[in-house]
Amino acid sequence: MTRRDVLRTAGAAFAAPAILRSQRRAGDKPNLLFLWTDQQRADTLAVYGNHRYRVPTLNRLAAESIVFERCYVTQPVCTPSRSTVMTGLWPHQNGCVGNNIPLKPEFPTLPEMLADSAYRTAYMGKWHLGDEIFAQRGFQQWVSIEDNYIEYYSPGRDRKARSSYHHYLLGLGHKPDSPQDRFSRDFAARRPLEHCKASFLAQRAAEFIYSHRREPWILYVNFLEPHPPYFGPLDELHTGAEAPLPANFPGLGVDREPRHYAKLRPRMREVIARRLDWPEVKLQATDPEERWREALARLNRQYAGLCSLVDQAVARILWMLETTGQADNTIIVFTSDHGEMGGAHSLIQKSVMYEEAMHVPMLLRVPFRQSRQVTVAPPVSHIDLVPTLLELMGARLRAELPGESWIGLLEGRARREDHVFVEWTDMEGGPHARAVISPDGWKLALYQNDHSMLFDRRRDPLEMNNLFYQTPYRDQVRRLRHKIEQWQKRERDNLALEAATG
């Protein structure tokens, strides 16, 4: 399929109009449309400086949203980050400190906290918090797309049951391509635009919005994309100039970078090597380093196409919201569970304390409070999402939640905590870490028994100059370390941090 063919095919989907005003009556309970992706960096949208990616719907949404310029996840990997988004607790508090750890029932999700029987509720897409395909946690309707987590189901769950998307593919006449009667992610990613996971979710979400247009609702839609396998039906949408390698590739000059990162790089190269059997990939280089660069360039183009794939799905969902007259009474969230290195510092995927893995888009559209773009410059954290949504939906704020609503920040009130914290618990024997981001642009990442990092992001946005071991910056290290220790004490985080000195 040529790039022109792709543009022609996708054009209709991208043509969705901007969100229009509709009538909201006093006393209406607001709807909540929570849209999130998997592994999407902040710099994939125009509002974060990227005017090359073809994501017109998300760019229009940003034009009517509160845009948080510096939003960070609580841990840069799937399950822990998702646990915070759903419960408003730190991963070390709810127990989801690594992937595939189920969320315990004693930690309620937002619909369970809201506990309002007037709301119709649905969760659609990737869950990754246990019992993947089964309705749970305050959601009445459940539309699943993943069959990769069967081995983690709770005792008594039917391991022969399959996802909603699995049955959709069966209905199209496809036969599973993997053991255990499953469709692989690769198989799903090779479906045409109208049959891929993102389009499937858009259709089901639109049906839910239409069906419940006369009653309040809560709808979470979590897209797998732009998560691996790093390809899809819009692979040819972007040129190399539109999706270039990061400016900090290869980015290997960081002084005393955590030794653990050097161990990650060969594994990440293996991921790329396994992907060289993509039918679409025809690498020309023979030198290993040139093949690595060429493969990363291809990955970035296809990653951009996956962001566009999400964009066309969001366009269909927002079109239904507008068509049914609900746009003016619906809070919309758009964010991601973590970022993607994309070759920055010669790394891919996540699990590190560099900006590309931690910093995610965060759009909050609240039409009954504002109709134009508002930008928020101070750093914020996903830990504040649940308190913010509870307040916007008129619910009681829960004292046990460590975060605080962003409403005070938007209204100019002082915050209890203006620093942002990020944690890392390594489930594979690597070093644990805690990080802090200050309002004035400093970032300290303290690793347990490994090298630590200090960056002045105002002067070093590509994070190439580690200042942690430089004498003039000892006071900064001391100040920011104290902030981490205060946070640990407040949030009952018992991790002892002793950075390597050699």
**What class, by secondary structure content?**
alpha/beta
Cα distance, first to last residue?
53 Å
Using only C-alpha atoms, the radius of gyration works out to 22 Å
What is the arithmetic mean of pLDDT? 92
- Low-confidence stretches are 9-23
The count of domains is 1
What level of helicity do the residues show?
25-40%
Q: How many DSSP helices?
A: 14
Lateral strand order in the biggest sheet:
5-4-6-1-7-9-2-10
Instruction: Note the main sheet.
Output: 8 strands, mixed
Report the principal-axis shape.
globular
Total beta strands: 15
Order of helices and strands: HEHEEHHHEEHHHEHHEHEEEEHHEEEEH
Strand content: 5-15%
| CATH architecture field | 3-Layer(aba) Sandwich
For the record, what CATH class applies?
A: Alpha Beta
* CATH homologous superfamily designation: Alkaline Phosphatase, subunit A
Can you give keywords for this protein?
502 residues; Alkaline Phosphatase, subunit A; single chain; 30% helix
Walk me through the structure:
The chain has one domain (3-15, 28-417): Alkaline Phosphatase, subunit A, CATH 3.40.720. 30% of the residues lie in helices and 13% in strands. It is built from 14 helices and 15 strands. It has an 8-stranded mixed sheet, with helices on one face. Strand 13 (433-437) and strand 14 (442-447) form a beta hairpin. The N and C termini lie far apart (53 Å).
